[in-house]
Write a structure and sequence with these properties.
Strand order of the largest sheet: 1-5-6-4-3-2-7
Number of helices: 1
Helix content: 10-25%
Strand content: over 45%
Structural class: alpha+beta
Number of strands: 7
Order of helices and strands: EEEEHEEE
């Protein structure tokens, strides 16, 4: 879990099995946008669930809200567009 800003990441567009998605890369990992929370505690709880499941997750502040970004394996990306 990490609180950061989008400035610290690189934006990418992905094609995954779920279709076209907005993504970011951060320290060599690919993340896809998840749910937006207005409450930081709720965002941390959701992030902790992902971490407990063995996934990497980030919380990034966006316009006064908190978006959970979930990591996906590179193998799930059909291509980076």
């Amino acid at each position: 879990m990490l609180l950061t800003s989008l400035q610290d990441t690189q934006s990418i567009n992905l094609i995954t099995p779920a279709g076209k998605e907005k993504g970011i890369t951060y320290f060599g990992q690919i993340f896809v946008a998840g749910k937006v929370y207005t409450d930081l505690k709720a965002a941390i709880t959701a992030c902790r669930r992902d971490l407990d499941a063995g996934l990497s997750a980030l919380i990034i502040t966006e316009a006064g809200q908190y978006r959970l970004w979930c990591s996906i394996p590179n193998q799930m990306v059909a291509q980076a567009a």
